[in-house]
Structure formats: structure tokens, C-alpha cells
Design goal:
Keywords: Flavonoid biosynthesis, NADP, Oxidoreductase. Bifunctional enzyme involved in flavonoid metabolism. GO terms for molecular function: dihydroflavanol 4-reductase activity; flavanone 4-reductase activity. It comes from Rhododendron simsii (Sims's rhododendron). By secondary structure, the protein is an alpha/beta fold. The protein has a domain at 14-209 and 249-279 and 313-329: Rossmann fold, CATH 3.40.50.720. Helix content is 44%, strand content 15%. It has 15 helices and twelve strands. The strands form three sheets. It has a seven-stranded parallel sheet, sandwiched between helices. Helix 5 links the parallel strand 4 (85-88) and strand 5. Helix 5 runs parallel beside helix 7 (176-196). The longest helix has 26 residues, at 103-128. The radius of gyration is 20 Å and the shape is globular.
Length: 355
Amino acid sequence: MEENEERRGKGKGLSYCVTGATGFIGSWLVKSLLRRGYTVHATLRDPAKALHLIPLWSGGDRLRVFRANLQEEGSFDEAVKGCSGVFHVAASMEFEVPANEDIDSCARANFIEPAISGTLNLLKSCSKTESVKRVVFTSSISTLTAKDSSGNWRNVVDESCQTPVDHVWKTKASGWIYVLSKLLTEEAAFQFAKQSEVDLVSVITTTVAGSFLTETVPASVRVLLSPITGDPMFSSILSAVNSRMGSIALVHVEDICSAHMFLMEHARAEGRYICSACSCVMSELVNHLAKEYPFSNLQRCALVEEEHGSVPSEISSKKLRDLGFSFKYGLEDIMNHTVNSSIDCGFLYPNVKLD
């Protein structure tokens, strides 16, 4: 009780804006900020989509919902006004482009350019008001690789191990459109921030899982559970991550939200920060899933194909930990909360019986 009161008091008088408030991370971030006593400006294209979340957020008069569209310049002016900081969580979760005669042009016009222009429109709104002291951008592990320029595994993956843009264009591995969107949007955001003197920090999220507030099952949860569901698209994304990183790095949604808030408030935070509570090779991941939700050996064998061959690269959150951040949830918590939430919403059937 005392801890809750202390957390509420900490946020008294401060306001933060959250874009993509109805998404997996965004919805939890709104809830987490309100729990700590902050006023929250939640933005989304269609406020009606927040109706089921408002009772879960329990924000009272500290919650304000704004209609805003990233593709409309000035659309966020009102939402960020008076806020001490902005969390830019909104992002397209498109992983592939439709079959097209010119797939590169289609990707640029329909996904990459809108992602970049939307982020710049938001940052322009932030630069217009003196109240915004920092913007925290939600990045992704998809922007990193555990392989060096020669294709050899690195011992440690840190924030400097960026995936080459030309390699993504060339290989077009599963989920490539999302990778490019994140890479190029983050790059454009830091360039604009430097030119406009906007204090920008990015959180490099690993595979985010745990319980979810959204009505639909988040894409990252579908990726993590693909060994169970056998969904070919999400299985291929999981395999692509494993091929690029040598393991699957994970973080609980509540920890990723805590990291966002921590980096917003920490005076010495700057640049990019990997947020990974733990990582495991594919066979270990599948075994942990099987403990929580037994499934057939056929599905398990189909995914345990490519292993690192040696000790996997360390996906390091040292930069974040060195600032003083600590993770609350480990691997077993992440698996348990993810499976239980998926059963509760009907995505997974309870009481599985194996053949």
C-alpha cells in the first residue's frame, strides 16, 4: 500500500503523451503511467478503439484521449502541449508486402515512407512546445544483428551492432518490411532530433511478451507462441530472428514499460538502449513453452532446426543496467504470463491433451 502511494505521489503534476495507446506496449504504458500518478495524453487514430481499455486503465480525470493521425502534420500539436515528455510507441506491425511487380517501390510508398513521415510529424509537434523535455522512441531488436560483416557470430551484441540496411533490402528475410521501417525511422528520428535539439532516447525492445490488455493477440506474442500454434508466418519470423541473433531475446511487457519510464526520467540517458531480460536458444525456448503448454513433438521438432553451434551471443542490456535499471520478470514469468493470458482470451485452448 505504501509503495503504491509513493508511486502515485511521484507522478503528481506531470503529464506524458503516449502514441499508439491501444497497442500492446502502448496500452500497458498508459496503465503503468497512470498507476504512478501521472496525467496521460493517450493518442490514437480512432478513440472508439480505446473504449474497452478505459476501464482497465482506471485513469479518471488524469487520462485524456486525443484523436491524432501520424500522417497529418500538426495533428499531435494539441496532444503534446503541456506534456513533460512523449513516448512514441505507435508503429505499423506489417511484416510482409503484398505480391507486386515492384516490391521495393511498394514497400517504400506504403510502409517505410509513411512510418518515417509520421515520426517526423510527431517530432515537429514536440519541437513546437517548450514543455516537452524528452521523447522516448520505441525501437526493436530487428534493428540489430549478432553477425559481423564477415558473417561470424559476435560474442556480445550491444547497441552498436546495427543490421545493415542494404542487407535487409537484398535478403528480404521474413518480416523484412518491419525491420526496414524500424531501421530507417529510427535513423531519421535521431537526425531530426539532432538538428532540432530534441532530446531523443530509444528503447530497443526484444521479443515482448506477458499478459496483454488488447482485444486481439499482439504480434510479438503470436511470434513467441508460434511453436505451439504452428502459424507459418509467425514461425518464419521466429526462425528469422533466431538466424539473425543466434537466440531469442525476451522481455516482459511490464518491464519494457518500466524501462521506457526509467529512460524518460533518468537525466543521463542518451542514445539507444537494448532492453532484454533474458535470451535462450530455440530448443530451450520450445522446452519452456512445452512446460507451460504441452504440445506435440512433431511441432517441436519442426522448429528446433538451426542452433548457434556454440555458446550463443550475449544480447547485452549492460548500458541500461549500468544506469541502474533492473528487471522484475525472468523467463519463467514471461512464459507463464503469456500462455495464461492467451488461454484466458481464447487464443489457446485450456487443458491440452497430447496424442
